[in-house]
Amino acid sequence: MKLSQLAFFCAVVEQGTVAAAAAQLNCVSSNITTRVRELEDLLGVSLFSREKNRLLVTPEGRLFYQKAKQVLAMAQEARALFKDDAERGVIRVGALDVALMNHLPERIARYRANTPHVELHIRPEPSLMLEQLLMDGELDLILTDGPIVHPLLVSRLAFRERLVLVTPKALSAPTVDDLSRMELYVFGQTCHYRRQVDGYLETSKIKPRAVMEIESFSSIFACIEAGVGFSCLPESVVEQAVTRHGKFHFERADSLESSDIYYVWRKNYTSPLIHRLIESLEQDL
Length: 285
Fold this sequence. Notes:
This protein is 46% helix and 22% strand. The protein has twelve helices and twelve strands. The chain has helices spanning 3-15, 18-25, 29-43, 59-80, 97-103, 105-114, 127-135, 176-180, 192-204, 217-225, 235-244, 272-282; strands at 48-51, 54-57, 89-95, 118-124, 141-145, 153-159, 163-168, 183-186, 210-213, 229-234, 248-251, 261-266. The strands form three sheets. It has a five-stranded mixed β-sheet, sandwiched between helices. The longest helix has 22 residues, at 59-80. It starts with a helix and ends with a helix. The model has no long low-confidence stretch (mean pLDDT 89).
């Protein structure tokens, strides 16, 4: 079914005759007659009752006319989508929790205020899942640990971040033995932080009494404040928690690598919307 067929049909209904419709559309009558016949064959119903030189719209034709007008109106709206200077589109972004909690909120709010015609959908996921969703085309842009070296991807520094050792407030200078007597709280294996923490434990010779996966910053802080365990968490998250209650101690550890957050997108992605989004997020608040 073609839009031209719908337009010819609607013109005949509105003008009352094929000749009048042809004059309005500046085409020959035989072209309109052929297209209407094709439409009837495609639908399997008669849209007009033909009596000598008259065309009377059938009940089926009236129903189809309503739907055809809607389709033509939608097609007109679609053609007009990008005629003005306003940015329009649907962008799908994935990000680490730490980026969404501490680095992006005000920047996203500013972007929404400046680009109201762009739909921005954001979902939190761990590092490995974000990379997979980007490769599968489910996401247009991710903010994750980096840099990422891949022939199909481009990465650029977004925000500085690093992990810090967080312990109960009473342990201001914890030893290896202190930490080995405590529980360790970590995120799951799909999180880049988990790999860093595992490397830190091996380098520091720390063997925690138990390792527990708790994928909730709030719950981890509660357990640390209760004095039963420790963790390695993003510094920006810890600094925010300190301003709220501060019932724990934290310090940087040399063997905990940086956990900088990077913008990552597909190298062959040509939409300017993605690059303008990154530019907006990079602007100082």
